[in-house]
Amino acid sequence: MHTPATFGSIILLPASARAWTPSALEAVLAHERAHVRFRDSLWLWLAQIHVVVLWFSPFSWWLRRRLAALAEATSDDAVLASDHDPVAYAELLLQFARQPNPGRVVMSASGSRISDRIERILSRRPPSRPPRRIAKLIAPALLVPVTVLAATSADIAATPADYEALDDSGGPHIVDFGDLAKLEEHYPPLAIQDHVSGMVTLGATLDAEGHVVAVTVLKEDPADPRYGFGAAAMEVARTVRFENPARARVLVRFKVKFALDN
Description:
Layout: E1 5-7, E2 10-12, H1 22-37, H2 40-53, H3 58-81, H4 86-97, E3 107-108, H5 114-123, H6 132-156, H7 160-164, E4 174-176, H8 189-193, E5 198-206, E6 212-221, H9 229-237, E7 241-242, E8 250-258
Antiparallel strand pairs: 1-2, 1-3, 4-7, 5-6, 5-8
Helix pairs in contact: 1-3, 2-3, 2-6, 4-5
């Protein structure tokens, strides 16, 4: 670690901190203590979860960037409010920016968009509003999608008995084979080595568009876990799309056959 950082309520300093001037150390601690005071790590963790759940939403990515920028701005303001010289503090940030922490998962004084931060510090702009009220408004936006995802997952879950009760005659049929059309690329390596063929019966849950949103192995032959036919079949099944005239949640059962060319 080359720059100061905050993980939750713990402030971490690099080994080089021993060589800092008292003024530089006080500025760094003022910055990191502001992160702790406003629980910035917590809000950024929630924002990251929000991105993971709703990765397809531009709002999720914007929200994470906005929270990170606000956290750094309010912490910079805390330093300046402690009567630290803006020019000296800007030089300190620039020094940290030259030695970033790649892949860090904590708050750091180096931050992102360092040029914007330095410009703001030197321009003497009014302090940013602490994120307390904003956090209260943003919290539902961060937490609701996770709750909805959990509820949706529970709603679409089906048991093996549900699939076994299906009538194989009629029902949805495949309109896009996906990776099923290139099954050889998913053939388990050990099964190829031992020249073993396999047959897997799957139960899948389709959404209104016919995409597989949940899949489970009903029967695997051979069932030896070393070969992994079941896992390979599930991976392939998630790329398949069915016709779904019902335009509603539908269960289907189908087989995936792994066979080597003679």
